[in-house]
Amino acid sequence: MSKKKKITGFIVFFVLIAAVTIGIVLLGKPREHAETLSEVMRDAVLHETMKVSLFGLKDVNPGLISAYCVTAIVGLFAIICRIFVIPRFKEIPGKFQLVLETLVGLFRGLAKDNSPRKNGILSAYIFAAGVYIFVGTMFELLGFQAVTTNGASISLPAPLSDINGAIAMGCGSYLFILLGGIANNGFHGLMGTIKEFSLPLSMSFRLFGALLSGALVTELVYYPMFLSFGLPVIVGVLFTLLHALIQAYVLTLLVSIFYGEVSEEKLDKVEKKKRKQQKKAEKLAAKNKNIEENNENINNTITSEVSK
Amino acid sequence: MGVPLNIDWQQILLHLFNFIILFGILYFFLYKPVKDFMEKREADYKAQHDDAKEALEEAEKIKAEYEEKIAGAEEEISTMKSEAGAKNAEERTRMIEQAKADAAGIVEAAKKRGEMEHDKIIAEAQKEIADIVTTATEKIVLSADVKKSYDEFLKSAEGNVKNE
Fold first, then answer.
1. Which of 125-164 (A) contact B at CB < 8 A?
2. Number of domains in chain B
3. Relative to the CA of A198, which of A26, A42, A278, B68 has its CA 20 to 30 Å away?
4. Is residue B25 in a domain?
């Protein structure tokens, strides 16, 4: 096929697609939305009407169902890896092994850098939190459907765009830091963590705000029908990927920084006493020096006076 | 309701419960095995590195030892050489002295033997002369002719010399 023919083929292809798209937009009857835009957005924040039944036990926000789905997916993946992949690990890693090792190494490095003294359990925690936030955020792209209690179909959102999920994650992380502080530093650790009392609030609402705003913008963009073509490739995938990465990174980084802060070695009493004594000795030495200098000055003046 | 943003404490706990389960699964099925594998490999490489380092140090030590030994051996060889040279020279001088002494002895013995031989010959000659003289004297005395006796004596002496 010549170059000219190729170009013509492409042009015809795109013109056809454009013509059909325009036809769809112009000829279709205006879509009747089940909810108005303000209702959609209000519900995305408050979850007043769109509830999903949790095994018939309780009506919950769709975010919780998403959270369980994410756990199921990630858990299944982990178990499959444990059974089929990890036993076949080699000294020189293959591609998939390299991905897993890089992932684990990344979180271990983050934990070690920010909390050099104690980081065993911290790295495991931020690994789990990072994976949960990342996969949870990407989960909304899969568009799993759930049926709400009032019979409507809903696409499952990111678990952390639900305020309850975000609070659980933020407060859970704070609790983890608190426990780490107590375990590593006792009372000092406890006080160190309590000092950062605004941390659970800020972490919870940072997650909630970031993910919810993403969901709202997406909701806003998709609401008019003609924007539902082509655009989601960029808005949906790229933005979701970006804030999934950013949020996972921010929360894990914050947790490791604060954990490192509350678990760092506090100077014990003997050390403090030693330092105090050293300071005292230094001060005394400085005083003595001053006195000697003064004496010398006085002597000098006396000799000069006498010689006069 | 009362709680802003429809926060539901039970759901928060349900989320926490979910996350704890996820943490457990990820820790035991993914994080720990991968971490253990990485640590084991790291430890293996470290052990290998340490072993190699140790072996290298050992080798260097042995090399230094050998070099020292070689240097010692060279020194030993040179002292042995000089010692052997000195010994050789001594032996040679001793042998030369010995040879000289032997030669002197041989010469002395030869001289002695020569002298003895000479003495013997002279003694024999003297004896023969005495015999001849005795015989001649007897003849002369018997003939009483001095001149004739003298001639005869000369003749017999001549004859004796010729016979010899």
1. 125, 127-129, 131-132, 159, 162-164
2. 1
3. A42
4. yes
Domain residue spans of chain A: 47-265
- Residue from A141, A134, A147 nearest A74 by CA: A134
Find residue A148's DSSP bridge partners: A52
Residues of A in contact with B22 (CB under 8 A): 70-71, 74-75, 128, 132
Chain A nearest C-alpha distance from B27 (Å)? 6
Q: Which domain range does residue B118 map to?
A: 8-163
Taking only the tens place, the pLDDT of each residue in B117-158 is 999 999 998 998 888 888 877 776 776 666 776 777 788 778
**Pairing assessment for the beta strands A58-60 and A52-54 based on DSSP bridges:** antiparallel
Inter-residue contact A168 to A71 (CB < 8 Å):
no
pLDDT tens digits for range A51-67: 888 888 888 888 899 99
B25/A124 touch (CB, cutoff 8 Å), yes or no: no
What whole-number distance in Å separates Cα of residue B33 and Cα of residue A87?
9
What the block records as the tokens of A231 is 């655009």
Residue A112 near residue A124 (C-beta atoms within 8 A): no
Residue type for position A308: K
Task: Determine, yes or no, domain membership for B123.
Answer: yes
Output the 3-class SS for A165-196.
HHHHHHHHHHHHHHHHHHHHHCHHHHHHHHHC
